[in-house]
Design a protein that fits this description.
Elements lengths: L11 H7 L6 H8 L2 H8 L14 H13 L4 H10 L1 H7 L12 H29 L7 E11 L6 H18 L8 H13 L8 H22 L4 H22 L5 E3 L2 E3 L13 E3 L9 E10 L5 E7 L5 H16 L5 E4 L6 H6 L6 E4 L7 H24 L4 E2 L3 H26 L5 H7 L4
Parallel strand pairs: 1-7, 1-9, 7-8
Antiparallel strand pairs: 1-5, 2-3, 4-5, 5-6
Helix pairs in contact: 2-6, 2-15, 3-7, 4-7, 4-15, 5-6, 5-7, 7-15, 8-10, 8-11, 10-11
């Protein structure tokens, strides 16, 4: 069970003595974030009558937001709250509880409890508050995609096969089975592979596959007689996919198709932990290929992030255009006056399917719009690249530390919340929010 409401932890005297910088971003955000609205939505994730009273929901949400705003780990955010008065004020942690207010592992459990649905509730509460205060405008849609890279070791075919043995060993230990391959020989050949020079490494894949093929067949035999959990069934499916793609790699031209002069394997597995990660090329000189999932983003001309959506692999931008435009319109409640993308979204269908209520459709070419609007569209297109660069390098979208596609979506939603809150701070300090907007946000004049 959990308490739905919260009390301010700090009396006015404490605030006056410890919080002297009223323009500090944490002081501003404490007034901007609709705490009670968020708590009203998240309380449903706890049983109303069972269990002991848990950690303050208000405090946990504050820690979650700060961790993404400052790009801190669970341990780092807890440590910094203990040392920083402004963080204590933002997270509503009183002095009486400061020495042991929460263990870092509680944040991990909190994220698991909320899941993707809970992260959506936090992001939607913040976004709807900013939109109702007319801070976020929806007259222009800027659309582009990028790569949310996963935290994994650069994959090689031999490394994946070697890791498959580790997965099977964990399975054997869980079911108290004797290991059915020669572990000593496997480790010896792995060390030899690591010491080999690059041109010689290709020959090792055949050797490792000849050890892997009978091992996975024995695994299938165990699956036929043992009581298997859904998670373990997924393990077998993953290893069978690895077996198939290794066969394709060894077969060369007979089972893999040509792509720009190179052999290409569809739906290629690059990690046994991040099974949703795929090799993605985005037309860059460096890095030529990134491993993760595709993130489709939309912004408005102010630079607020309106929508994000994660996809496995690298779907064509042109196929994502219609649904992304629809999500933008639904979220903002109005159709944008201008839609601005690059040439990757360009197609006849996208031109014809764009609603008539959209006045200007710029899909990568200046002659898509009237001359008087061309300069605006070109500048907005350049700004989109800047917004994505900020998101990846400064707002946490550079690399996901969560597992699987659902985890990546949670990561994306929390980063999106932090991104838009940081944008509010920038507009507030630059004096670009009107007095009326500030009052709607709850900021003192």
């Amino acid at each position: 069970m959990i308490e739905q409401n919260f009390d301010e932890a700090f009396p006015p005297d404490w605030v006056k003595a410890n919080i002297d910088d009223v323009d500090n971003e944490l002081v501003i955000l404490r007034q901007v974030i609709p705490w009670q609205l968020i708590l009203d939505k998240l309380v449903s994730f706890y049983h109303p009558g069972k269990g002991r009273i848990g950690n303050s929901l208000r405090m946990m949400v504050g820690l979650l937001i700060i961790s993404r705003l400052r790009k801190l780990s669970d341990r780092e955010v807890v440590g910094q709250v203990k040392e920083n008065r402004y963080l204590q004020y933002f997270c509503n942690v009183p002095d009486s509880e400061l020495s042991n207010f929460v263990h870092p592992t509680a944040l991990c459990g909190f994220r698991k409890r909320l899941g993707e649905k809970g992260a959506t509730q936090i992001e939607e509460s913040v976004f709807s508050h900013l939109r109702s205060a007319e801070v976020i405008k929806g007259d222009t849609l800027l659309m582009d995609s990028t790569v949310l890279t996963n935290n994994l070791i650069y994959p090689t075919d031999v490394r994946l096969v070697y890791q498959a043995f580790s997965k099977m060993q964990t399975f054997a230990q869980r079911h108290q089975l004797a290991v059915w391959w020669d572990c000593a020989h496997l480790k010896k050949r792995w060390r030899a592979f690591g010491l080999a020079k690059a041109p010689q490494r290709a020959i090792y894949l055949t050797e490792f596959y000849l050890m892997f093929a009978p091992a996975i067949q024995t695994l299938r035999d165990h699956f036929a007689v043992l009581k298997i959990s859904p998670k373990e069934s997924q393990l077998l499916a993953t290893l069978e996919l690895l077996e198939t793609q290794t066969q394709q790699k060894l077969a060369g031209g007979s089972e893999s198709r040509s792509y720009r002069g190179k052999r290409h394997i569809d739906n290629r597995l690059v990690s046994l932990d991040e099974i949703d990660a795929r090799p993605i090329k985005k037309g860059k000189t460096f890095p030529a290929c990134e491993f993760g999932s595709t993130v489709q983003m939309t912004f408005n001309r102010q630079g607020f992030m309106i929508t994000t959506e994660n996809f496995i692999g690298q779907p064509g931008d042109a196929t994502l255009y219609g649904n992304t435009l629809k999500r933008f319109r639904t979220r903002m409640g109005i159709a944008p006056q201008s839609v601005i993308t690059d040439k990757g979204f360009r197609s006849k269908d996208n031109f014809s399917d764009t609603p008539d209520s959209v006045d200007h459709v710029f899909l990568g070419r200046s002659d898509d719009v009237i001359e008087s609007h061309q300069d605006f569209c070109r500048r907005a297109r350049s700004a989109t690249e800047g917004f994505i660069a900020v998101a990846k390098n400064l707002r946490g979208f550079g690399k996901s530390l969560y597992k699987r596609l659902t985890g990546d979506r949670i990561w994306t939603l929390l980063c999106q919340t932090a991104y838009n809150l940081k944008k509010v701070i920038q507009l507030t300090k630059a004096g670009q929010l009107s007095c009326e907007n500030l009052l709607k946000l709850g900021l003192s004049m």
